[in-house]
Amino acid sequence: MRGFVKRALAYFHQDSSKLIPFLFLLALVALPPLAMVWESLSVFVESLCPILVFGVLVSGLHLVTGTTGALHLGVAGFMALGAYTFAILASPVYPFQLSWAIALCGSAVVGALSGLLLGIPTLRLRGDYFAIVSLGFGEIVQDALRNMEPLTKGTIGINPLPGPQFLENGFGAPLGKVGWFYLLLAMVWVAVGLIVLIERSSLGRSWAALRDDELAARCMGISVNRSKVYAMVLGSALCGVAGGLWASYLGATGEPGNYDLQISVVVLCGLILGGIGNIWGSILGVFIMVGFNSLVLTRLTTLLTEAGIVSSGSVITSPMNWKYIIFGLSLVVLMRFRPDGLFPASIRRTGRLADKLSRDEAVS
Amino acid sequence: MTLLDIDRITMQFGGVTAVDEVSLRINQGEIVSVIGPNGAGKTTLFNAVTGVYSPTNGSVSLNGEPLAHRPGVRDFWYALGVALITGIFFLFLFHIQSAWDQCINALYVYEEPFDWLLSRELLGQYWQEQSWLSTWGIGLVSALLSGAAYWVIRTQGIISPERIVRCGIARTFQNIRLFRSMSALEVVLSGAQLRAGPDHRRRIIKESLELLSFVGLRTVTDRGATTLSYGDQRRLEIARALATKPEILLLDEPAAGMNEAETERLGELIEAIRDRGVTVVLIEHHMNLVMAVSDRVVVMQNGRLLAEGTPAEIQQDEAVIAAYLGNDLDG
Fold first, then answer.
1. Cβ of B52 and A212 within 8 Å?
2. Domain finish residue from B126, B154, B182
3. Which residue from A199, A274, A263, A261 is spatially nearest to A231, judged by alpha carbons?
4. pLDDT tens digits, residue range A51-101?
């Protein structure tokens, strides 16, 4: 335990771009108890749940865009596949009716397989070309789901969907918002922990090398194909899980058109806002991006309406309608003054083992 | 003993022949310099040898083994796997919708128990009702096509940098190509991880630290690779290449941008590399360095070999002097 704490301290040491988002994620654990004390906070517990799903989604995107540098515009497609897989496996309208956890694993597997299918043909594509293909993939998935009516119920979507059984208390009623909040937060922590572990391994080093200089990486024996396919498969699996969580949280898949480009773009903006290549920053970036939309602006609108400053019917003065202006403006300002994002990735260091080995060497 | 055998290698880009039937033999434990005016094809030769370009003609072999990938049993299994996956995928794509409709939707009543055995029977029935072409035909055709395509691509004798560095030829670059998001130690580790399984973390870190001391960068292990001074970055590239445990190291203008003192230290480093048992081939313009360290010097001009010999012989060679200084200076 002490070794773990020491390693964690070394990991975050003097690295504010990891530490600040870490502390934020840690602080979220304390939110529901605090909400019991201060009633006004309880609205956040509920409205943060969808944003936590986006946190899982951005960690999937991070594995593709953040690690290998390929611009990925199709995460919503993988999310949709995950959501529908979960729905087909778990919903009572189909005969499978698997348990929540197994259906979620199914989402991950289908996400990974479709990541493989998209990853292999696009290995040689760079930059914009990959962006176009992944964008097309996202659109194809929507159309395919809409038209495979026997499987997906077309535009109706699949419902009802079960929540996790272990979140239900003895009477079979769902535990409610606090339970969901902790479950989704735990999923975000698991996703981030997984990514941190992978990035510390030699696979993560291969990804960093490929992103920095593909030719030099290849000349050092790093297999481009293998690394990229791994990134794509793992990232898509996480996106699939995010989709399954999303559907389960909402209790329905909704219309296939819900999984559209806007989701991909919002998540990508969050990733860039937080800092490409830094998973901690990316998570916080998505919180800022989506939270601003669904928390800050909604609150602002209600406050202003209650104060009588704006009327709720007015199109122009309602803050909800400023969101794209504020989005665009803040992105432009950000790119001008902090092109690496709010929490730019720090350089890769080897960590404590290297320090220890090098000290041993100095002694002997 | 011949270590690297470059046999009549030709490299053409469109109509331009950058390297024209160059043959070169490098012996074990030698330091060989390749010199020549700019545009003579030295770097292109390096690129062709290390798999960055696939040579138009000719072959390279290391220890008598040709470097080009030759098809093996593994490629066959991979092709079979690709064929199988594609075949199943296309069958799935064609039939999932109607099969689902007949076997699941036709049978299942909301929240009633489901008869899996009957559904399997229905699936069998469905399968037999379909025409031969739309079941086995589609599967076979798509599997054959994809498997054949994979096989053709894999067995073309591809020369890839990944494969060649695995065989034991490492290189550095003319314009420094370090990984800018990594510390110096991580850069060396990215080379060292080639020769280690995933659980050899401790060993490759030790080796990399040792290599950093070897090139004299031990004090800056944690600094960002691209924040180092120019000469240090060049030495870091050498350390990264050495970390892949090569038998032969190709250095592309390692002394470019170095001052006299640094160049001299580089010469000592190159000799130390040779003493570790690594054969060195270098492209260089600093004649002092070339003449001091080389066992043999190879002169290239216009993509061809002009002369070959010991440093002393090359200094006397009429053709070389003409190439470097021009004929008209004599007269």
1. no
2. B154
3. A199
4. 999 999 999 999 999 998 889 999 999 999 999 999 999 988 888 888 889
Q: Which chain A residue shows the shortest CA-CA distance from B116?
A: A95
Could you report the predicted ipTM of this complex, rounded to two decimals?
0.88
B184 and B112 in a single domain? The answer is no
**Residue B297 within a domain:** yes
Q: Has residue B271 been placed in a domain?
A: no
> Same domain, yes or no, for B136 and B185?
no
Which residues are within 8 A (CB) of A39 and not within 5 positions of it... i.e. 6 or more apart? Answer: none
Contacts of A354 in chain B (CB under 8 A): 185, 205, 209, 221
Q: Is residue B292 included in any domain, yes or no? A: yes
In A, minimum Cα distance to B112 occurs at A95
Angle at the Cα of A151 (from A147 to A153), degrees rounded to 5? 65
Interface contact B110-A92, CB threshold 8 A: yes
Residue with tokens 């590399």: B273
Residue in chain A closest to B111 (alpha carbons) equals A92
Please report whether residue B262 resides in a domain.
no
- Shared domain for B13 and B48, answered yes or no, is yes
Same domain membership, residue B204 and residue B239: yes
Domain range for residue B226? 169-245
pLDDT reading at B1 higher than 80: no
Using the beta-carbon criterion (under 8 Å), do A221 and B191 form an inter-chain contact? Answer: yes
Phi, psi angle pair for A229, to nearest 5°: -65, -40
Cα torsion through B7, B8, B9, B14, rounded to 10: -160
Residue of A216, A353, A357 lying closest to B177 (CB–CB): A216
Which amino acid is residue A352, in one-letter code?
R
Whether residue B81 is found in the same domain as residue B146: yes
Provide the shortest C-alpha distance from residue B96 to chain A (in Å): 8
Chain A residues whose beta carbon lies within 8 Å of the beta carbon of residue B50: 219
